[in-house]
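wait is this the right file?? whatever heres the structure
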């Protein structure tokens, strides 16, 4: 009796190949026309097509692709637009998309032993070189800024704890361990602190100065007060590019305090670290190389497809000791046996066991475009934000609301005779309308209790006329709504 065995490979390779060519052409066309491709929120018809019980038989590859094209793509193709400056929104690239296809094609789950080990290792070397982080440091590619920060804080906790964290965990802590950062820290740091079992009470949110930088005196004072109370200050967090306003702390001053107090210095440079590639703003990130750990991502200001960040750690052994499997930690007793390759094996430096060959896209994109292209793109975004600031300053009904350090400007619509409360209400209304008509062009935030609109440029597709459009649109909406 003949037995028909199943596979997910196509029965007819040529049919799937031609569907693949169509998918590629459609996505290339969409990306080529990213400025004019129409956007809509999911319609009733979209939802009727999407929210269905899973069929027994399956809809087939072609029909399912049509569902993507007609009911998913129109309301998800947004961050790729030239006029998207909300949040810190990665834009991806056409070549990046193709590298993702190769990653899935190999479907490799390991970045050790094979060529993937070397691409990972090389990407870490390139990132250290671009950011001028010490040659001897190690690092690992992770899913993004949140995981990079988590990784840095996990190593900090284990390295600075006064008992063996690997064995005892937080259950063995006799003195409460505390961390310090500015009130402008990203909330993913708070989440990391919670998941690491330290409790968010342990995280001290310290005040900032007029430039939104952490006040060093307040840091010194709070650490001293905590010590007097018998707690154990173990880590200070610096910000290289705050999410609200793109501010940078003084890393040299933070390093001094950290040294004096025997604390770990972790820097969240998720997107801001990349000002190191500019000629005009490089100085802002001076000193990030002194951090014990540095979190960056590559899917925002390095324009790579989503799902890639990097945690750099100066002390390779501390990093390895934190993530190596408990049962393998026996090696740590005889560190002489640890080869350089062991300490750079990404499977021992982050949470996942299976890895999705994350390094391939970074390797190919960095190698294809080289340092100069990235330098020019970063500089272009900084110049574009400067251009937007000039437009705002020239426009009487708009005003800048926070110091502009790098690639973010916070501003609002203004009108004589309106109180602070009325201005806030008007800007809320403007934001509400923008969300409906120009989704994602800008977002909003609150700094030191004041509500403001916000544009952050990490977009390689933006052109100066796109910023002219934004200002005209704000003038129009402000006039209509006030
Ligand atoms: C300063 C900063 N840190 C951390 C994060 C979190 O990074 P991710 O979204 O890649 O997890 C962000 C996200 O925008 C950020 O701006």
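ok assuming it is, sequence goes like this
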């Amino acid at each position: 009796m003949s037995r028909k065995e199943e596979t997910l490979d196509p029965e007819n390779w040529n049919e799937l190949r031609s569907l693949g060519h169509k998918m590629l052409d459609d996505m290339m066309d969409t990306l080529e026309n990213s400025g004019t491709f129409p956007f809509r929120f999911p319609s009733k018809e979209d939802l009727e097509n999407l929210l269905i019980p899973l069929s027994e038989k399956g809809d087939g590859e072609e029909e399912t692709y049509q569902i993507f094209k007609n009911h998913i793509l129109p309301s998800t193709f947004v961050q790729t637009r030239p006029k998207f400056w909300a949040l810190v929104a990665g834009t991806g690239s056409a070549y990046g998309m193709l590298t993702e296809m190769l990653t899935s094609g190999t479907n490799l789950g390991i970045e050790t032993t094979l060529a993937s080990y070397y691409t990972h290792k090389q990407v870490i070397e390139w990132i250290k070189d671009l950011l001028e982080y010490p040659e001897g440091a190690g690092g690992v590619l992770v899913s993004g800024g949140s995981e990079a920060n988590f990784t840095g804080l996990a190593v900090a906790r284990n390295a600075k704890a006064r008992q063996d964290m690997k064995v005892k965990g937080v259950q063995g802590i006799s003195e409460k361990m505390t961390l310090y950062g500015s009130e402008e820290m990203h909330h993913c740091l708070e989440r990391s602190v919670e998941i690491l079992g330290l409790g968010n009470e342990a995280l001290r949110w310290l005040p900032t100065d007029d430039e939104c930088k952490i006040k060093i005196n307040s840091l010194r004072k709070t650490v001293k007060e905590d010590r007097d109370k018998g707690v154990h200050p173990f880590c200070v967090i610096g910000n290289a590019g705050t999410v609200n306003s793109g501010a940078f702390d003084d890393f040299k001053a933070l390093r001094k305090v950290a040294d004096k107090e025997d604390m770990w210095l972790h820097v969240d440079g998720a997107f801001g670290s990349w000002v190191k590639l500019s000629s005009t703003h490089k100085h802002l990130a001076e000193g990030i190389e002194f951090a014990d750990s540095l979190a960056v991502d590559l899917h925002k200001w390095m324009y790579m497809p989503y799902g890639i960040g990097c945690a750099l750690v100066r002390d390779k052994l501390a990093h390895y000791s934190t993530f190596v499997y408990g049962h393998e930690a026996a090696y740590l007793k005889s560190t002489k046996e640890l080869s350089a390759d062991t300490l750079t094996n990404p499977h021992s430096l982050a949470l996942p066991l299976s890895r999705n060959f994350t390094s391939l896209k970074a390797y190919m994109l960095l190698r294809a475009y080289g340092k100069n292209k990235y330098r020019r793109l970063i500089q272009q975004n900084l110049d574009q934000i400067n251009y937007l600031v000039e437009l705002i300053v020239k426009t009487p009904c708009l005003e800048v609301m926070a110091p502009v350090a790098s690639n973010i400007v916070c501003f609002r619509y203004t009108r004589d005779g309106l109180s602070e409360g009325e201005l806030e209400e008007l800007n809320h209304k403007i934001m509400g309308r923008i969300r409906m008509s120009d989704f994602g062009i800008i977002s909003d935030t609150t700094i030191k209790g004041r509500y403001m609109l916000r544009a952050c440029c990490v977009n390689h597709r933006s052109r100066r006329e796109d910023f002219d459009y934004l200002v005209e649109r704000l003038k129009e909406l402000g006039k209509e709504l006030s």
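The chain has 15 helices and eleven strands. so i think its the right one actually
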